[in-house]
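Per your request, structure below.
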């Protein structure tokens, strides 16, 4: 829909039964987040909070809480936007089917940003402390903006068409920030804003930053969209929202989104940082306190009747899961078209997205040989791990399309089984050591530092996976079959690397006493039973609590010509480590308060 504002969207969603109002006053400290989380768990409606303690502004959350609601908001524009993305990724398609794509160029042209100064009069000024001070988790370092659109320009190529619009979290208060004058700007590696700050630093110039909150829902979606090269986020926002991205510049030269509800402007000076965090993040743990760029606030603008937009970040699935599903629906074919031979790639949401990738590629290098093995898919895996944010992946499982035309990366248990049935543990495990991993992942040996591993599988089945443990299977440690071919084992809590080596060596000896043919993977953990409850628990624990180079072991393992392999089962030590960040735990008192809201007569009765 061509929403002119966030308020238009709220009215439309409420009219069609996709939004409810919370009329009683709510506390932005933990309570609003707890309500959001509970409603999201039930796949409930969007939430409009009319009265927020300590703030004159209302707020909305869970707009993108279901894929159905997300598609409803863009029901008039999704088909043409998909065509636009496809055309940018593969222009030859326009030559092959000119009538189908005839409108795509017109869509892009009509979506170009529109400079309009008429909107200047619609904005008023406020302060950072007047904004809803929403804190999601008990150990968070302060209130954060969780749905920002952060705008920066390239100082070498100024102008909105060369700008970057990204979603990077913003700490509004706490730590060492001077109230109402300073805020924290957190962005991870491999982000467009980093390129802009690097150029500004090189010239010794401050970087101008504008932070937009609210506006039509196409704007925050554009800020997280992995777009093909040459397709501007602002143009995409215009195309998706059926309304050109309107902007103007204020007296200090900052770009203002004319349709945003709030705009915070400020500058980031070279090498000026302050501690930011901790913050409960999407891996299901806290990202800890680290130095990040300091933004000195110039102005805080808001529209009349402005609505604050927020989400809650935590262990998946969360609202950003639906975000991701919508993104995949729009751009699903873009990345495979950019990497020759790649058919599918999926960042596994249940594992926190970046830690785990599944991929399917072609395996055509030696079709004249009877025995097939990973070759082309290894080349493809190198492309994947060198591609944009995919380069932050820690585990990559890749299979060959030729082995199963119906295989899907989105069916987690089935895909894992397919790989484990075919992988040669002596040959098909490939490590990348001392490299970069996701900023939010604390399983490595330092911030942004760790290792990667590729599990490649092609050819005929090499084993049938155990779906039940044999009656004669014996192991002293508590254990359970977490999934087909995957054994979870509880060992004593991890203390240090030396003790861990002894634990694993002893486990190897015990495992050798059993028939292990159908058990190619063993996950060592703190609670084997937890991993059996749901496949999501298995992938979350196994791939967020391990650093491949340090925590992968194997029965009868060996190194030959610098290549590591094993003759028996692969072992992943996924116990919590002393250097890991703490996991997210809800506040019990706040949870009981939300329980009461779900009772008869409460605002959430019938929803939670």
């Amino acid at each position: 829909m061509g929403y002119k504002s966030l308020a238009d969207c709220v009215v439309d969603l409420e009219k069609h039964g996709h939004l409810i109002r919370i009329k009683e006053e709510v506390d932005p400290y933990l309570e609003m987040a707890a309500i959001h989380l509970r409603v999201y768990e039930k796949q409930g409606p969007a939430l409009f909070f009319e009265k927020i303690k300590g703030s004159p502004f209302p707020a909305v959350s869970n707009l993108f809480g279901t894929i159905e609601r997300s598609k409803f908001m863009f029901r008039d524009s999704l088909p043409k936007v998909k065509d636009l993305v496809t055309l940018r990724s593969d222009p030859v398609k326009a030559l092959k089917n000119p009538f189908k794509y005839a409108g795509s160029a017109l869509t892009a042209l009509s979506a170009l940003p529109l400079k309009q100064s008429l909107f200047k009069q619609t904005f008023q000024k406020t302060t950072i402390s007047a904004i809803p001070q929403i804190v999601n988790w008990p150990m968070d370092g302060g209130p954060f903006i969780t749905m920002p659109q952060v705008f920066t320009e390239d100082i070498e190529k100024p102008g909105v068409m060369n700008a970057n619009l990204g979603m990077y979290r913003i700490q509004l208060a706490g730590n060492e920030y001077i109230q109402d004058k300073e805020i924290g700007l957190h962005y991870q590696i491999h982000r467009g804003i980093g390129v802009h700050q690097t150029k500004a630093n090189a010239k010794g110039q401050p970087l101008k930053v504008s932070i937009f909150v609210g506006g039509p829902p196409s704007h925050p979606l554009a800020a997280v969209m992995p777009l093909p090269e040459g397709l501007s986020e602002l143009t995409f926002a215009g195309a998706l929202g059926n309304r050109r991205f309107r902007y103007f510049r204020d007296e200090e030269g900052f770009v203002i989104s004319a349709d945003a509800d709030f705009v915070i402007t400020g500058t980031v000076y070279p090498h000026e940082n302050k501690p930011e965090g901790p913050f409960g993040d999407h891996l299901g743990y806290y990202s800890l306190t680290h130095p990040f760029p300091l933004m000195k606030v110039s102005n805080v603008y808001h529209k009349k009747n402005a609505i604050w937009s927020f989400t809650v970040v935590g262990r998946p699935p969360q609202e950003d899961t639906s975000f991701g599903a919508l993104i995949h629906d729009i751009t699903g074919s873009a990345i495979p078209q950019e990497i020759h031979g790649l058919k599918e790639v999926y960042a596994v949401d249940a594992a926190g997205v970046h830690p785990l990738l599944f991929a399917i590629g072609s395996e055509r290098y030696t079709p004249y040989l009877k025995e097939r093995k990973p070759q082309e898919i290894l080349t493809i895996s190198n492309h994947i791990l060198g591609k944009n944010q995919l380069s932050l992946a820690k585990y990559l499982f890749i299979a060959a399309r030729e082995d199963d035309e119906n295989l899907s990366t989105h069916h987690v248990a089935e895909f894992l089984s397919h790989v484990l049935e075919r992988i040669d543990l002596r040959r098909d495990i490939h490590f990348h050591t001392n490299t970069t991993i996701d900023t939010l992942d604390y399983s490595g040996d330092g911030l942004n530092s760790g290792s990667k591993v590729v599990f490649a599988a092609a050819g005929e089945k090499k084993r049938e996976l155990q779906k039940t443990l044999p009656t004669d299977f014996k192991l002293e440690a508590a254990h359970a079959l977490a999934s087909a071919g995957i054994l979870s084992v509880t060992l004593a809590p991890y203390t240090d690397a030396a003790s861990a080596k002894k634990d694993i060596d002893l486990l190897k000896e015990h495992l050798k006493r059993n028939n292990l043919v159908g058990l190619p993977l063993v996950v060592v953990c703190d609670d084997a039973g937890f991993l059996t409850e749901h496949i999501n628990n298995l992938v979350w624990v196994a791939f967020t609590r391990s650093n491949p180079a340090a925590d992968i072991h194997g029965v009868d393992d060996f190194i030959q010509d610098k290549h590591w392999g094993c003759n028996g089962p692969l072992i992943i030590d996924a116990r919590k480590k002393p250097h890991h960040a703490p996991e997210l735990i809800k506040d019990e008192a706040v949870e009981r308060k939300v329980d009461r809201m779900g009772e008869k007569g409460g605002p959430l009765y019938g929803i939670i």
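Confidence is low (pLDDT under 50) at residues 91-106.

Regards,
D.
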